[in-house]
Amino acid sequence: xxxxxxxxxxxxxxxxxxxxxxxxxxxxxxxxxxxxxxxxxxxxxxxxxxxxxxxxxxxxxxxxxxxxxxxxxxxxxxxxxxxxxxxxxxxxxxxxxxxxxxxxxxxxxxxxxxxxxx
Length: 118
Description:
mainly alpha; 0% strand
């Protein structure tokens, strides 16, 4: 039940930031994308955006349960940070590799955020 609440709340928080992949690509094309380029800056931005209660809920989750955040929270990360729109700098910063699946990068960011809240 607690995990469901966390998922619902996090999805709601990032829903405004994660409207669609199309919007992220359009923002990139218009030169308006404000994407973080390092894993640390992505974590810092999430830390600043999330309300304290959500940070506490995330910190209270088991690391193995973070995968449950893949669709709501993870989708918000992938869309807001341009991972589907070509933000290769962020992908490389988080993984140390050039060609990394955006799903994997969003999980790395989620795990690093969780680590920072411990």
